[in-house]
Amino acid sequence: MQSLRRLVLLSSLLLFLVLLSAPKSAWALEATILDPVDYLALQAIPKSLFDMPGGAFFQSWDFTSDPCAGFRGVQCSGGRVVALALGDPRAGSPGLYGRLPPALSALSALSSLSLVPGRVSGPIPPALPLLPSLRFLALSSNLLSGPLPRSFSPALRTLDLSSNRLSGPSPPPSSASPSSPPSANRFSGRVPGAVFTLPLASLRLQRNRFSGALRPDGPAPDGATVDLSYNRLTGRVPAELATAGTIYLNSNRFTGDVPAALVARVTAGAVRLLYLQHNYLTGFALAPNSSVPPGTSLCLHDNCMVPPAAAATSCPVRAGRRKTRPPAECAGNTSSYQR
């Protein structure tokens, strides 16, 4: 037993001396061993995404070195990839082109994924928004197309898919009539109602191709930013959006009166910004003795309100000076809305 203890002690001392004399790079290598699944996922990225002419983002992605130490846009923790910022974020830098690789969905520890403006096209991998740790997903100002994913991670707090070519999801098979022609089974273009019930601080879907009526599955997160501007949305403004704090619905085809719940939240100061310009809305009814508080931005220009709503407090310059639409533009639009 005594000799065994001496052997163990001697072995431990020998191992300590070997490690002590090892180069510092060996210590660093030992400390940053990347999960094999994450390593393979990173390898798939430059096979599917490429630098635009004049770009050099992927120049540092040399897989003979440690991805966690030298790859631009890659952040690791505990041997896992936790953040990806794809593309050079500096002003004037060219972006990327290609498609988002499905292998991104294998990065199970990823909490943040951003993509600089560029020409990345094709669909969003359906499993990508379901990553369990994903809190920040920003893929704006590219050429992404196809349906918005039906499901998202409950951890998600920021979703920015603005300025793409996304449409709504296809309807479930049970909703399509067997006698419908093939064209009736295309994507409806509607925003999935479930996206409004996610615990998001920011939902940005502006400048896409969403159409049809908004039908949220429940109230928007309290105080959230919701931007659905510059789409093709129709019907009534849903009262479920009244719980948000900053709301952009301008440049759509909304009709009818602004819901009383939303008006009440504006006059209470709970909605800090409400942009409704360039729609076909017919009313914004303030309660007696109520007004829009100072510091709240409300724009109602270029709607079908007669007379024009006097409650508007501030509009951006790009909203223009026209306070109401001519009757000819409102005829046939204010009454033909989808419930």
UniProtKB/TrEMBL annotation:
Q: Which residues form the Leucine-rich repeat-containing N-terminal plant-type domain?
A: 38-77
Read off the InterPro entries from this record.
Answer: Leu-rich_rpt, LRR_dom_sf, LRR_N_plant-typ, RLP29
Q: Which residues fall in a compositionally biased region of kind Pro residues?
A: 169-181
Provide the leader sequence positions: 1-28
Highest taxon in the source lineage: Eukaryota
Q: Which SUPFAM superfamilies match?
A: L domain-like (SSF52058)
Query: Region Disordered: which residues?
Result: 162-186, 317-339
Question: What are the protein's UniProt keywords?
Answer: Leucine-rich repeat, Repeat, Signal
The yes or no answer to whether the keyword Signal is present is: yes
Pfam families for the chain? LRR_1, LRRNT_2
Give the protein name, as stated in the record: Leucine-rich repeat-containing N-terminal plant-type domain-containing protein
Q: Source species, please?
A: Ananas comosus
